[in-house]
Amino acid sequence: EGADFHYSLDGGATQHALFTVEATGPGETQTFTLPDGTAGAVRIELRDAQQAKGEAVDSVHVDHLLITSYTQSAEAPAAPSELTIGRVTPDSVSLGFTDNSKDEWGFEIWRKDSAAAPVDCNDGAVVGTAAAAAGRGGRIDYSDLSVAPGSSYWYQATSFNDGGDTGCSGAVQAVTPASPASSLTVSAYKVKGTQRVDLQWYGIGGTNAVIFRDDVAIAPAHAGDVTATDDIGRKGAGSYLYRVCETADRINCTPEATAVF
């Protein structure tokens, strides 16, 4: 169901919403600007977004929490540089760029949904923000999960503080591949408390498909099979990433599917 994050400036008596994170896997970096003049202790709390009677409380892991205080800036921060494209899938584009400033509040990721290159920093729209780095020279990573299969996008990054926005980094293009013709569905359930996952797929040829759980081959499927059951044998909560490929070398694979307990 996800988790709702809140902050309080009076020890928990009054709650203010920060953001909600998704439930199905690792989340992106979240950034929130506290009200001007905030001082003293800041209490961060989170709640299960949907708690049904009798349901176990979900587990949430926060890798890093940074609260930064800024004074008035004399000028806009230096622009980021070395923007590069990482992994590209039909529904995601990974980016990375270099932070060249020590006084930025954060970064904006600009995207132009076109095959034509942008003409300036504001040619397109902001699709997300990234938190400020710990210091100058660090690499900032961002994943755009709002893209469509078979599409062309141009990206730029800018940094900002109360002194204004910078110029943009160099623009880079990403072209997402078309959606694969194959598919995979998974169904997670428990038998006497132990985890079990049913899989069903199509569009995978060959004589013996190979099932991967968390990128590790766990079982071959007999020739002609389009279904299988993974008896994990574990208890409690868990999340597993599956895909089915024609060969153990990961040739012609289905899209990934996640089973969550």
Described by the principal axes of the CA atoms, the overall outline is: flat
The end-to-end distance, rounded to whole angstroms, is: 12 Å
Order of helices and strands: EEEEEEEEEEEEEEEEEE
What is the strand content? Answer: 35-45%
Number of helices: 0
Largest sheet: 5 strands, antiparallel
Low-confidence stretches: none
Nearest-angstrom radius of gyration?
22 Å
Number of strands: 18
The overall pLDDT, averaged over residues, is 85
Please bin the fraction of helical residues.
under 10%
Short description:
The protein has 261 residues and is mostly beta strands.
Write the layout of secondary structure elements.
Layout: E1 3-8, E2 16-21, E3 43-48, E4 81-89, E5 92-98, E6 106-112, E7 125-131, E8 139-144, E9 152-161, E10 164-165, E11 172-175, E12 183-191, E13 194-202, E14 210-213, E15 216-220, E16 227-235, E17 239-245, E18 257-260
Antiparallel strand pairs: 1-2, 1-3, 4-5, 5-8, 6-7, 6-9, 9-10, 9-11, 12-13, 13-16, 14-15, 14-17, 17-18
